[in-house]
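Predict structure. Chain length: 217.
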Amino acid sequence: MSAATRIYTPAEAAAVSQIGIKAVHNAIDKKIVNTVSGAAAPEKSVRRRALTGDGLLRLKLWYGVGSTLAAERRQRLFEAIKANPAAKTVKADDLLIVDVAEARKQLNARIRDLDEAETIIGKVKGVMGGEPVFKGTRIPVRTIAAMLAQGADKADLLEGYPSLTARMIELAKIWTAAHPTRGRPKKLSDQGLKVTSSKRTTLKGDPGPSVRKTVPA
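Prediction complete.
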């Protein structure tokens, strides 16, 4: 399925466009982006909130330049893109020329990253209590992403998890952004993890606390 025809949940749209999920919902609520309704959406839970590929492009352009434009100028911009979808640049008016090709390039690169992440991450029966892991390992993806968010160093993660690669670390970030958890995150013990070693790491914005690096037993 091409990027233009596939459907994206708000969380996937946020991950691909690198825009906060609140901003995505704000754009949907203001009807700035195209959404899919009814049976066209893959699941009832995302109906009326799912975005098309065109909606993704609108979202990125709106967040980049469109949010500063009056509604009329923004609409002219989107209409110009729709009238010439293959154009590399679009002249919305005498004062605004937008590099649409670069926006598409960035979106397509992120979509490929998400697709790659989907192929190597998933739930495996009997492994880590059903937590999503990198296939072929017992490494919980959300644990890696959480440690990164708390300031863990990539080199330390690679040392602590021998089967982890730098590419897997990058894909963990986009995958967890596209698949946010609901409710409270599971404790490490709930994921079947045991702390076998620890290293003191300074967290962002806090000179004191430490983070335990957890290696599956």
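Summary: Residues 191-196, 201-215 have pLDDT under 50 and may be disordered.
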